[in-house]
Amino acid sequence: MIVPLIVGTLAGVALGIVSGLVPGVHANTMAGLLLSVAPLLVGTLGTPVLAAALVAALITHTFLDCVPSTFLGVPDADTAVMVLPAHALCLEGRGAEAVRISAFGSASAVVWALPFCLLFLVALPALQPAIDWGIGLLLLAVACYLVVFSESPEWAAGVFLVSGLLGLFTFRYAFLAWNGGDAVLMPLLSGLFGVAVLLSAAGGAMPPQKQGGAVPLTRSFVRCSCAGSVAGAVVGWLPGLSSATANAVLASAIDYGDDRAGFILATSAANTANAFLGLAALYALGRMRNGVMVALGTLDLPPFSFLLFAAVLSAAVAFGVTMLFSGTAGIFARVPLGPLNAVVILFVTLLSFILCGPFGLFILAAATLLGRVPALVEVRRVYCMGAIMVPVILSSLGVPVL
């Protein structure tokens, strides 16, 4: 099984690098690509190679997706909130540092996720009915905490609820998009957290980018990586939740304005831990948390230990690749921000149209308008995560949203 493991992992890492570096392309896209040629791959290389490639692509994506979020300010579903402090560090000439912190956060999640996988596989399946029932109440409590302890509870509640309505509308009418389903997340989150920020960004040139130094293994590092890994593990196991939900929850515990490095570390850990525990949930409960798990569910699955080994191996390779890409920060030094932001906005608009058609452009425009509000009323942009949290809360409580 060593040869299929290595071949599949390396192929998945290559696909994950592409999906991580290209804004708007997710590991689910690569899973669909692999499934389209699955009969050929299974017939020539075998099912274990395909399964390892799917897992490796997902894990690698969680490492590399910080690069466009940091240097271009374009989020995907997993980096929507993280893009704010990461891009802010980039504008201070610390983009390489932000990417390195993110890489260490994802790497630390692997260490935490391994015992979590064993614990969850053994202890939680019997408790799953009770856990499913309490998801909506848990998220509702988190949302209330975020709003009550905000700078302006009235405006925070307003932004949260209006973004929730926009999220409900987006998911309810996702069938109007050309590709439907998860594709609508791209214009929704890019408008709220990407284009809205870029439109209000200052001009001038991007400052010279410093090469990141060593990331200190302090007590704060351990605390933030543990918090992020726990949050990612929880949403990776529970139905209907995603890394975006975990990141919103982390925003209630770590102030991304005061502790940007800690927040980047925690959210990156959450993204990677989510991928690991999603794999554990597939084996323990037969539940599929994302497109990659859906693709795996169509195969004759190899042993869990085989795919767990592929995940760890791909994480090790992806860590090195991410650290390598942190050195590309110098490319952006002294780049005029006005033209760069315009090009990024144009790219996001074009990609929204390609993925979702006219409906995607409408969602992008509406989300961008709403995304401008937090800065105007001086509340944190995290309340725009109501676009994800409100639909999840309502569906968890049994309220139909689709």
UniProtKB/TrEMBL annotation:
The keyword Cell inner membrane does not apply. It comes from the Archaea. The chain crosses the membrane at residues 37-59, 101-124, 130-148, 155-178, 184-208, 220-241, 261-285, 306-332, 344-370, 382-401. Residues 9-385 form the DUF112 domain. Keywords: Membrane, Transmembrane, Transmembrane helix. The keyword NADP does not apply. It holds the Pfam family TctA. This is DUF112 domain-containing protein. It comes from Methanofollis liminatans DSM 4140.
